[in-house]
Amino acid sequence: MSTPLTKAFYQKPTLELAPALLGCELVSYVDGEEVGGIIVEVEAYRGDIDQACHCYHKRTKRNDVMFWEPGYAYIYFIYGMYHCLNVVSEKRDFGAAVLIRAIEPTRGIEVMRERRGGKRDRDLANGPGKLCQALGLDTSYSGQHFNTADDFALLKGRRIDKANIERSSRIGISKSTELDWRFSMKDNPWVSR
DNA sequence: TATACGATCACCT
DNA sequence: GGTGATCGTATAC
Question: N or C: which end of chain A has fewer CB within 10 A?
Answer without folding.
Answer: N
